[in-house]
Amino acid sequence: MDGVSKYFDAGETVANYRLDLEVADGEFLVILGPSGCGKTTALRLIAGLETPSEGDIYFDDECVNRRSPSDRNVAMVFQNYALYPHMSVRENIAYPLKIRGIPPDERDRRIEEVTELLHIEGQVDKHPGELSGGQRQRVALARAIVREPSVFLLDEPLSNLDAKLRQEMRSELKRLQDELDITTIYVTHNQEEAMSMADNVVVMYRGTIQQIAPPEELYARPRTAWVARFIGSPPMNLFRGTRRNGAVDLGDAGTVTLDGVVGSDLEADTAAGDVSLGVRPEDLFISTDPPTDGNAIEGTVDTVEPLGEYALVNVSVNDQLVTVKVSDAGVERDDRVYLTFGDDDAYLYDENGELLTRTASAKTT
Amino acid sequence: MTEDNPFTPTEPSAETRAETGGQRYTPVDEIPDVAPSKELDWRTRIVAATPTAWRVLKYGVAIAVAVLWIVPFVGLFMASFRPLGEIIQGWWHLEGMTVTLENYRRAWSYQTAPMGRALFNTLIVTVPSVLVVMLLGAMAAYPFAKFEFPLKTTLFFLILLVMAAPPELVAMGNYNTLREIGLFDTYMGLILVHIGWGLGWVVLFLRNYLLGIPKELEEAARIDGASRYQIFRTIILPLSTPALVSVAVIQFTWVWNAFFFPLVFMRSPELYLAPQVLPLMRGRIQVEWGLMAAGSVLTMAAPVILFLLLERYYKRGMVAAVAD
Question: Does ipTM top 0.85?
């Protein structure tokens, strides 16, 4: 695997697939999506636990469709860890080595190395049943790492841990991946995990890839309305409106001119149709007086959720609830407010949910 | 996604706490190590300990059923340890009781068919019948539980169907077959019949158990590089220990105590098995109750000892199975 890129290119018609995906050596790729979007299937296809009914999977330039999982030199960590309950931790970690006929001396050396790396030296003689969730997780990782695989596959490895442990393991996984420099594919439904660890994030929805991008880009330039709503917590607000004469008509709430939003390099200003205007809660500002210039959307405060660090204000705009993230609420229910935003922070999606804005927003997080 | 956010505070805000004052919270060092014992006077304790009439009735029925079960066994034991003269009036007459091992000595070396030899013969038949059924049963149950292959349901249904047949029906066919191939009146023939007869329920039993083993374990092993056979030997078999032990105990008891199959398939008296020998001990002039009782106890002992020996593994297996 000398710096050659790997091609994964699988299509499975039954599960509504047509995936084109390319992972570079040493990359940390996260597949993110809601449950049932096919992300685990994608991972299992790569692992060889499923065979693609259409399309081909390549490791380097070699088609591995017909190869068994063991021949692919992949290692996988399962959501429920899948530790062998009748074996001690040491035997668990040694299992893949034993199967591959690695001599006992070498086995012991590698086990020692990997248990040290994961800080489970003290647990090697225990059985998985005696370990806590975090420790089991480490053992499962150790079992995967000890083989020195060419691809490392993780299927929601952190979802069975409590919040604190999860955060710990998250940074540890990231550290491990940096140290070992193994190509890693990580499946999760937790966007925080995805954003914090990934070099590249693949967002999947209903068996198809919605967007492949580094985390910053995913946040700053969601390709579709669906991704926009999926990424970010709370998610992006999408105002439904009609596009007309270079502006978006939001009905009673007002009109937003698109001069700053949509670049002039795009379609003519006269283009019309149903569109959605997306603005992230953290990019919206609240004021009780109508602003003198710029775009403003009118609405009524519905609820205020104080969360300590910040507050969420839910504003009802045209029967639509819009969330605004502010550091200090200062408004109450039924207050009449005006929402303003910077032109760079707004995104326009057509009726198919595709991003219209082409002005590559310079904003980075 | 918000429920996954560890930063999202879930506790009530500081203001609500302050309103109720500091009294609301118990300092950590005030928490006792053990649950505080209740101060009660004797009267309350006695009342609490006295069972209600309904409870007494339930216990009464339960104890009666238990006694009903145990009485024949007690009688058998008593009869086996006493001379015939004492038990002819009934084993429950305890006056002038003499304990003797005479019955056991006589049963062990009974002239027509000594119990000692019969027990050994039974062992020769039982051990292979149990071990082969366990191995073949596991090997057949595994694909039924975990693989997809054509006619899977049909074949499985067929196995269930065969199980429903009564042994008397099977015996006729088997009798003829064994005669044809020259295995009649041999242990090999009897063992084969026992294996065939046992496989049905063993496959059903083990299949159901194997269904409960998470498929991720096998997938993990596959990714770790194990072949199908290695998965079976190093993952599936060790994990099925508790089920296999159950199979061993039940199949052992069944084969050991089997009367009908040996009766049909074994003819030579020197090859007789223990359950066949028992009726021979009745005696000519007078029923030798003591002798028969001793023979029965000797026959019964083997499955009981096996169960006691395997109980440990049984329990260990259970623990391993639940400790995910």
Answer: no
